């Protein structure tokens, strides 16, 4: 079980930036990621980083978002630039199991598989 402390959400205008942070403490994990869920929609993967620093991004995030981590501080980051109203959602930090993280083809769509430990979420609202 992993415990999380998330921060950095807020309200910005379109074109603005936000940086999300997540401190993860507890059991070992094979990768970490950021997911988001808008009202009435399924939770979707935004970006994932494994323990070697390899990253995977959703198409919607490529070129605008950057996932990174400070392993010494057990902290995960998501730098979000050029935000759009459609980025509005609750953003969740997550830590994945070895099985979940091992399939790069499906890791971003694996939110419902039970292979993640979840943070409490932080709200991001982008106004037009």
Characterization of this structure:
The chain is mainly β and 128 residues long. It contains one helix and eleven strands; from the N terminus they run E-E-E-E-E-E-E-E-E-H-E-E. The longest helix is centred in the last third of the chain and has 5 residues, at 98-102. The chain starts with a strand and ends with a strand.
Topology, please?
Blueprint: E1 2-7, E2 10-13, E3 18-26, E4 31-37, E5 44-50, E6 55-57, E7 65-70, E8 75-80, E9 89-96, H1 98-102, E10 116-118, E11 122-127
Parallel strand pairs: 2-11
Antiparallel strand pairs: 1-3, 3-8, 4-5, 4-9, 5-6, 7-8, 9-10, 9-11
Mean pLDDT: 94
SSE pattern, N- to C-terminal:
EEEEEEEEEHEE
Q: How is the quaternary structure best described?
A: single chain
Question: What structural class do helix, strand and pairing data support?
Answer: mainly beta
Write down the Rg: 13 Å
Low-confidence stretches: none
Provide the β-strand percentage band: over 45%
Number of helical segments?
A: 1
Quote the distance from N terminus to C terminus: 39 Å
Overall geometric form: globular
> How many strands, which pairing sense, and closed or not: the largest β-sheet?
7 strands, mixed
The percentage helix is under 10%
The total beta strand count reads 11
């Amino acid at each position: 079980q992993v415990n999380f402390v998330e921060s950095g959400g807020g309200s910005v205008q379109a074109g603005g930036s936000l940086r999300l942070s997540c401190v993860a403490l507890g059991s070992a994990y094979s990768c970490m990621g950021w997911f988001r869920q808008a009202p009435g929609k399924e939770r979707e993967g935004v970006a994932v980083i494994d323990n070697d620093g390899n990253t995977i991004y959703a198409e919607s995030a490529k070129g605008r978002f950057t996932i990174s981590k400070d392993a010494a501080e057990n902290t995960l980051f998501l730098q979000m630039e050029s935000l759009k109203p459609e980025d509005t959602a609750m953003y969740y930090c997550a830590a994945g199991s070895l099985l979940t993280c091992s399939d790069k083809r499906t890791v971003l769509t694996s939110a419902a598989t039970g292979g993640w430990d979840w943070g409490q979420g932080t709200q991001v609202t982008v106004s037009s």
